[in-house]
Specification:
The chain has 331 residues and is an alpha/beta fold. It folds into 3 domains: 1-48; 49-267, P-loop containing nucleotide triphosphate hydrolases (Rossmann fold, 3-Layer(aba) Sandwich), CATH 3.40.50; 293-330, no CATH class. Helix content is 47%, strand content 12%. The chain has helices at residues 3-17, 21-32, 36-45, 65-78, 102-105, 133-142, 180-186, 205-218, 249-264, 269-292, 298-309, 315-330; strands at residues 53-58, 83-89, 115-121, 147-151, 168-173, 194-197, 237-240. Strands 3-2-4-1-5-6-7 form a 7-stranded parallel sheet, with helices on both faces. Helix 2 (21-32) packs antiparallel against helix 6 (133-142). The longest helix is centred in the C-terminal third of the chain and has 24 residues, at 269-292. 40% of the residues are buried. Residues 92-98, 124-128 and 222-233 have low confidence and may be disordered.
Length: 331
Amino acid sequence: MTADAGAKAAALADAAVAGDRLALARLLTAVENRSPIAEAALRSLFPMAGRAHLVGITGPPGSGKSTLVAALIAEARRAGRTVAVIAVDPSSPITGGALLGDRVRMQAYADDGDVFIRSMASRGHAGGLAPTSAAAAAVLDAAGFDLILIETVGTGQSEVEVAAAADTTVVVEAPEMGDEVQAIKAGLLEVADVVVVNKGDKPGAQRTASQLRAMLVATAPRDAGASSSGPRPKRPEVLITTAATGDGIPELLAALDRHRGLDRVGESTAARHTRAEAHVWAILAERLRERLHDDAHATATMALLDEVADHRTDPYTAADLLLGALRSDDA
């Protein structure tokens, strides 16, 4: 990186922390584009992060996640908290662009300096998040926001990745959608810290909540204080909300605070470690790909991939050969 780029990164980071929302937006654009300026800024900002409450909002399409996020913003602002939102939208497989429709639903907060909403395209990334969601959350955390809401794409039951990016994971369901069993099969409910049955004014909301509570009891681990993403309450709370009217939203925010309280007394150390591991591994994988496709390795890498495609080499041998090539460079 040039000295000029380093100075620009430092200036953007300082301005974002000082409350300059335009600088913050520019920095997040640099993060999405994976520019050297973003990496330099993140190196200086990361020690300032770790104070915000990161809440992942996930669930199937049609459950009302965006409306719920807007209602949570309103409730948090009434409590005097600053709020940032990372709303991930699916990308076009043709252009790579995204509709970014979540901004439309949250326009009421466009003029609120204590609310910052950033739409991000998933760019084909699986798991419901954008490839740079964790880095963007760290920037917003360092910028001083109290609550950071990360809303996933909403493609169904494959969105468990958000549990590794958030302190608290909220899974949103809607009455009579038939997703309860599918979610529990695929593990979506297994990563939940709070389960919300939204659209509580519709018939079947109470029944859906009861079914979810029963399933969560039946599938609770024998050691109820543990999960794959670290310690959590014995069972996730199941709440009913109607985001369009605000019913149940104060109770939801209180539930998030209760879970945050567990984190503050050290109950979620393993979960924070899992999040750090996921973040570092993602950067490591990206850097490995970059090195294997640089000028020194691109020809050999593509030739080896062709061999795997033609079934002349198995993928395990190919991976070992590629790692061996990098080790030779470092020797």
